[in-house]
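sorry for the late reply, my laptop died twice this morning and i had to redo everyting from scratch. anyway the thing you sent over, i finally got around to it. pasting the sequence first so we're on the same page, its 303 residues, then the predicted structure underneath. double check i copied it right bc i was rushing
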Amino acid sequence: MKQLTSEMIKKRAAELGAQVCGIGSLELFEGEIPGRDPKMILPGAKAIIGFGFSVPRGLYESMERGAAYYAYTTLGVKYIDEELAEIFLLKMGGMIEDCGYDACLQKAVPNLRIKGDSETNPEVKDTYELSNAVPVSPGKPAPDVIIDFGLAAKACGIGAPGRYGKPLSPKYGPYIRYCFIITDAPLVTDEPLTDSICDGCGLCESACPGHAISDGKLDSWQCSVYYKGAHRSNPFMTDDFLAGDPEREAILNGEKRFDAKSAREIYPKLNFLPQTQWGYAPCLCGRKCDIVCYRHLRETHRI
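ok and here's the structure:
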């Protein structure tokens, strides 16, 4: 086998454009359910490598000004996860496998949820829970195994979940997207993040137009409705939206509580901008939670 070191991986990751790279042991994954266990993907895994790509601040600022919304959706979400991360992972994986080790590439899976995960991803039109998946043999998890990116970022020392669940980077706060590689290479690992940079200020809760964050938890179905524009702060809101609906004011004020069924019922009515051809929904809440979080972290010198 060719020599492969942690330093080589971090140097190459930086050359390929990753702003963040960390290498974690799998100790934090002990006790995870099989459907989220990296060793169910690669039984001989010895480490997980995490990478981060920052999302330009201007994409958030343009939404806040009401000037541009597709730019964040296409460049800040879709392009990073679907093009940049994919090409990057293939190149990094090739480097690792050229040295004789296995590299299991892990990019975001935006529209799928493992069996038993009833949450959703507000960034896409809808998600599909793999509720009918069954193990191929006894002792194996139902496919697909999808690792917890928040826990993976924490293990690699490059992020840790904040108050509303999103992994926060010590350098970029919430303005970052992650991807990972599970490998059997015997690498020197970094220390995991023991504490989140989140100080529990609660600004994300008060900023959310749909009141989707409470008690430090995100209601993903509630979030999905207001991410797609059900609040009156949506600049594309029209007077005829939900005209005649007795719950219209409650919905516009973010007071109506949505679950999986009621959220999916209102999705077809949230046609304020044309849907993208890739399955990503335009972000019409302006990611106010991320913006106030980022500014608070900067003002308090936590990033």
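The CA atoms of residues 206 and 213 lie 8 Å apart.
thats about all i looked at so far, will dig more tmrw
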